[in-house]
């Protein structure tokens, strides 16, 4: 979402992401990568995701998943114990990796990107925002102090069993200070509590004195919250 959260007259960005509380992590010293190529030359393009362990890029996929997609002698015959220790540089020839499209990710955190007259700087939202995915963001001044605040919802249950689902978000409220900083407010203090995978959220203006937050949940009834003036 875009809004002027630091009150300097230009639009900043609030970006939801998957957060830090998952199997698949990344930072500037341990980047995650996606390699894209036709690895077995069968006319089908495959994607291989890796994470960085001890400075080496290690595939995150199960061996049976790779075997279902890529038919090379090494993948076909490697043992599970050897695959557990192998890097992508050992799995494929250098020539194939050099020809691959490689996408690099150095963070999965949800971020604030501040715009200072066209110069952008990013910083993470508070730790409470990194406990699960952020799927939806609503921006408004909740506490009437003249500064924009955030309401977020998330979670993602659509993961393969080996990665576990992300379900640690119960909806969050963050008060802004007008300088691009946000402070988490407990669910008990706000009364905002959402259980489940929240796929959508909208702000409803019933009239100028009544605002509501409507949260759409996957395989469940929607939840409606009134914002007290």
In angstroms, what separates the terminal alpha carbons? 23 Å
Domains counted in the coordinates: how many? 2
Low-confidence stretches: none
Largest sheet: 4 strands, antiparallel
Portion in beta strands: 35-45%
Q: Can you write the helix and strand succession as a string?
A: EEEEEHHHHHEEEEEEEHEEE
> What is the number of helices?
6
Strand order of the largest sheet: 1-2-7-8
Q: What share of residues is helical?
A: 10-25%
Number of strands: 15
Name the shape in a single word: elongated
**Arithmetic mean pLDDT:** 95
What class would the helix/strand composition place it in? Answer: mainly beta
Q: What Rg is obtained from the alpha carbons, in whole angstroms? A: 22 Å
Tell me about this structure:
- Strands 1-2-7-8 form a four-stranded antiparallel β-sheet, with no helix packed on it.
- The two termini are 23 Å apart.
- 13% of the residues lie in helices and 38% in strands.
- The protein is mainly β and 229 residues long.
- The protein has six helices and 15 strands.
- The model has no long low-confidence stretch (mean pLDDT 95).
- The chain has two domains: 2-22 and 120-227, no CATH class; 32-105, no CATH class.
Short account of what is shown:
By secondary structure, the chain is mainly beta. The chain is 13% helix and 38% strand. It contains 6 helices and 15 strands.
């Amino acid at each position: 979402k875009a809004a002027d959260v630091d009150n300097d007259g230009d639009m900043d960005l609030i970006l939801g992401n998957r957060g830090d509380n998952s199997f698949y992590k990344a930072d500037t010293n341990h980047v995650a990568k996606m390699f894209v190529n036709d690895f077995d030359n069968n006319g089908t393009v495959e994607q291989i995701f890796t994470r960085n362990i001890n400075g080496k890029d290690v595939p995150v996929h199960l061996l049976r998943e790779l075997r279902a997609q890529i038919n090379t002698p090494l993948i076909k015959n490697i043992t599970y114990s050897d695959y557990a220790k192998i890097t992508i540089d050992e799995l494929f020839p250098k020539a194939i990796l050099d020809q691959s499209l490689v996408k690099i990710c150095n963070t999965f955190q949800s971020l604030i990107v501040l715009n200072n007259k066209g110069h952008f700087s990013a910083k993470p939202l508070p730790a409470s925002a990194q406990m699960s995915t952020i799927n939806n963001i609503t921006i408004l001044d909740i506490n009437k102090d003249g500064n924009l605040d955030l309401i977020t919802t998330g979670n993602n249950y659509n993961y393969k069993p080996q990665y576990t689902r992300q379900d640690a978000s119960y909806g969050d409220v963050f008060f802004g200070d007008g300088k691009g900083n946000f402070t988490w407010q407990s669910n008990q203090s706000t009364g905002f509590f959402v259980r489940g995978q929240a796929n959508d959220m909208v702000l409803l203006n019933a009239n100028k004195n009544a605002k509501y937050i409507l949260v759409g949940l996957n395989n469940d009834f929607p939840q409606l919250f009134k914002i007290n003036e």
